[in-house]
Amino acid sequence: MVGTGVSSEGFIKALSDAYGGAIFLATRGVGADPATTLHVTGPGDAKRLTKACEHLVGGKITIRRHAPELLAKPHSMQSLVGVLVGEETIIADPTGAVTRAVQLVDMARRARAFMPKRVRGLYFNPARGVVFGWMREPPPAEEARSAMESAMAEAGAEWACVILSPVLPAVGLVAVDEVSAKAVAAQRARARLARLVTTVAAAVGLSGAIATVATADIAPSDPLFQAVFKGGGGTQHDKSFGSLDGSAGFYGPVYGQIDGKGYTATGANGGGAALQFGLRDPALYRAGVFIAGGSAGPNFTMGGAKGDLFAEQFSLHLLAGELAVAHGPHKSFVGGGGDLYLGDDTKLFINAIGAGSDTFGSGGIEHTFQSLAGLTFGGAGTFGPDQDGFKIYAKWWFGAPGGSLKHEDRYGPADSVLDDGWFGEVRRLGKHATYGGSVTPPPT
């Protein structure tokens, strides 16, 4: 019940009629004056919805829009519950899907407590209502089944069937918790490495000495084509600037990506393009090479290698290569940085690049607003020769499900190599470029 004499089904129906779109969940916060949050997919009349909800339950009303991909292809049920429910209470769930997800996440926590060394992963098949327990070793059947049944009963998930096995079938499974999602991702990585070793061994005539490692898979996976768009502006030293960036590519175990950028600053306009490709496992790492070129006053080219390492709440970034500025210096560069996730949708970041005697970079914060269909906003301070200042920006991902900022960072496109800092550095180096003995460009 969500109000005096109002059933949850009637509550959702009344609000859906007012909104003119799908409302699939309502939650309420905690505290003396809790807000009611309505979770919707697709467009609708937000003002009519707010008025209708105020009439039924009163208090503060919040509307959160979610991309359909978040519901259809979550990274795990735990991440889905974190985005949709968090610390709030479900007051209306007409399909029961989110309530069941909450129960399964609780079941996973209890099952791991009952069998801490035996459960490798827990996965759910929504079409069949079956929980698959991926075990590290075949446990005594009665002991394991009794522990799982106890966990499911205490979590209120007796409605699901359970199958325990040391082999995980590829039958459209969704990881129940994040530990399970990482377990299957690590298994995929080992299998890909084994296939690579087998291929190389076969090429040198040693295939008989190599054993192929079996793998378990889950479906569905992230879409092959993805993109991200970013726009913003700020100041660097005594100049204002604005930029619009886009990256798109194909992202499997091998990825290929094209970066594009338009850049305008006081007294200098420009842009560039880059190509990246490499290998990746979103649960562990991303490693590749890149080439890029563009103009920020003088023309420039650069190339090198970059890599990312992923931990639970932290990412490490590394970069190295060579920069060449027309009529100016060639500089080797090396850089690095890190992301600290305060939650799945908020991160602090810092990065720095050393190019010869110059060091430049930025540090700041990003947050993804699930209520704005995953739109992410960020702000950063910038530093370096002629680059001290700040920038603010917004970015939006296309095609990568999962919803959270951390998921998009790791499963979606890699960071563009055409960072604003490069354009500030090239513009500064252009001031000191030599043209046949002169420090000014020849007339055109």
3D structure, described in words:
With 444 residues, the chain is of the alpha+beta class. 26% of the residues lie in helices and 41% in strands. It folds into three domains: 8-95, GMP Synthetase, Chain A, domain 3 (2-Layer Sandwich), CATH 3.30.300; 96-221, no CATH class; 225-431, Porin, CATH 2.40.160.40. The chain is built from nine helices and 20 strands. The chain has a twelve-stranded antiparallel beta barrel with strand order 9-10-11-12-13-14-15-16-17-18-19-20. A four-stranded mixed sheet has the order 3-2-1-4, covered by helices on one side. Helix 2 (46-57) links the parallel strand 2 (36-41) and strand 3. Helix 1 (8-19) packs antiparallel against helix 2 (46-57). The longest helix has 26 residues, at 178-203.
Gist?
With 444 residues, this protein is of the alpha+beta class. The protein has three domains: 8-95, 2-Layer Sandwich (GMP Synthetase, Chain A, domain 3); 96-221, no CATH class; 225-431, Beta Barrel (Porin). It has helices at residues 8-19, 46-57, 68-72, 77-84, 97-114, 141-154, 178-203, 405-411, 420-431; strands spanning 22-28, 36-41, 61-65, 89-92, 119-125, 130-135, 161-165, 174-175, 225-236, 239-251, 254-265, 268-281, 285-295, 299-310, 314-325, 330-343, 346-355, 358-369, 375-383, 389-398.
Question: What key phrases describe this protein's structure?
Answer:
single chain, 444 residues, alpha+beta, GMP Synthetase, Chain A, domain 3, Porin, 3 domains, 12-stranded antiparallel β-barrel, 4-stranded mixed β-sheet, 9 helices, 20 strands, 26% helix, disordered N terminus, disordered C terminus
